[in-house]
Design brief:
Elements lengths: L2 H4 L5 H17 L5 H5 L8 H13 L3 E2 L8 E2 L1 H11 L7 H12 L5 H16 L2 E5 L8 E9 L3 E8 L2 E8 L6 H15 L4 H14 L6 H14 L9 E4 L13 H13 L1 H11 L5 E4 L11 E10 L2 E11 L4 H24 L2
Antiparallel strand pairs: 1-2, 3-7, 3-10, 4-5, 5-6, 8-9, 9-10
Helix pairs in contact: 2-4, 2-5, 6-7, 6-13, 8-10, 9-10
């Protein structure tokens, strides 16, 4: 539901005053007064009329007066109406798109490198904090798996998932010879290479549950080792990359030590961001959380703009930007949207490549 739906009586003149005020506040970061608005060529209204309209907007919850200032600033609700109903987005320019394409095409980076570079791109182009989740392994493909013997009843499992190499040390009930592990490697690659991790995991566990009695001991051990190897070991702290956190220090409204400490603690611990992104991955298109809308106190004075990216019609991750509520939404929203579309196209191309 949009802010306009919440206050359907808000007339066109009031919306026009709100739009100009929000745009002015985004540009200079200062409270906006009626005299300032009366000087703009967009409002052919007297200061007295503008004061009355601003008073109505404040009473409706769209504006507030900070401290003792005679001017007004938008509330979260005011920004929400602005974004939903009054915003005119500006598509990214060719230079921005070229920079993004250069990152993605340069040396065909691995998934981990791609995530880090896209996160840095978002922070650099917006001068805010950029974040990108690592693609969920459930929707990525196992390219190769290999087992190597270690000492003390341990086995090294080497997996290539998409372009990323992951290693697991498995603890076993006995030592396995190089020959036995080579046979296991050949069998598992013949059965599962090229298939999605989620399907591999389901098939392995189904075999363990339904055919254990018919397997010999070595085959049963192989299936158990493979299941252990592909079990997800990343925790939520490893699920996404944040870049450009220090950019937020440049915004006056976020510059207090207390606010920055809370935000930087969150960037380190990643608990609330992770849960917010989990909500976004279930939604379609660009998601915008303004201030308290996120439901997490640490984000009360910031906005979070996200968009999902995917591969083969599966949503496998989310990218976005975190910045002050006073951000240039008309520019940031399309940057996030286009970045997600280009990243999706890139992952699709990689899935279709042999």
């Amino acid at each position: 539901m949009s802010a306009q739906d919440l206050h359907p009586a808000l007339n066109e003149r009031a919306q026009h005053v709100l739009r100009v005020l929000v745009e002015q506040h985004i540009r200079d970061g200062q409270p906006v007064g009626s005299r300032t608005l009366s000087k703009t060529t967009e409002l052919a209204l007297s200061p007295a009329t503008i004061r009355n309209v601003m008073s109505d907007l404040e009473e409706a919850g769209y504006l507030r007066a900070p401290h003792t200032s005679a001017g007004r600033v938008p509330t979260d609700l005011g920004y929400r109406l602005f974004v939903d109903n009054l915003l005119e987005v500006r598509p990214p320019d060719s230079e921005t798109l070229g920079s993004l394409n250069d990152i993605i095409e340069a040396n065909r980076p691995t998934q981990q490198e791609l995530v880090e570079q896209v996160s840095s791109f978002l922070s650099g182009i917006t001068q805010m904090a950029g974040l990108v989740t690592l693609p969920r392994s459930e929707h990525t493909r196992l390219r190769h798996i290999e087992f190597l013997p270690l000492s003390d009843r341990r086995v090294l499992a080497i997996m290539v998932i998409e372009e990323e190499v992951q290693n697991r040390v498995l603890y076993t009930d006995r030592d396995y010879s190089a020959s036995e592990l080579e046979q296991a490697t050949n069998f598992l690659n013949a059965q599962f290479a090229g298939r999605e991790i989620s399907q591999v995991r389901r098939d392995l566990r189904a075999e363990l549950n339904t055919a254990r009695e018919n397997m010999n001991e070595i085959m049963s051990d192989i299936i158990s080792m493979a299941d252990a190897a592909i079990t997800e070991t990343r925790n939520e702290h490893d699920e996404f990359v944040v870049a450009g956190q220090t950019n937020l220090m440049n915004f006056q409204e976020l510059s207090s030590v207390q606010k920055l400490k809370a935000l930087f603690d969150e960037f380190t611990q990643k608990r609330d961001i992770f849960h917010l992104l989990e909500r976004c991955i279930q939604a379609e298109g660009v998601q915008i959380f303004i201030g308290r809308e996120s439901g997490y106190e640490v984000f009360d004075e910031v906005s979070v703009i996200t968009a999902p990216f995917g591969s083969r019609d599966n949503i496998i991750g989310v990218l976005g930007v975190i910045g002050p509520t006073r951000m240039a939404y008309e520019r940031i929203i399309p940057i996030v949207d286009v970045t997600s579309k280009i990243l999706t196209a890139t992952l699709n191309d990689r899935h279709q490549s042999p």
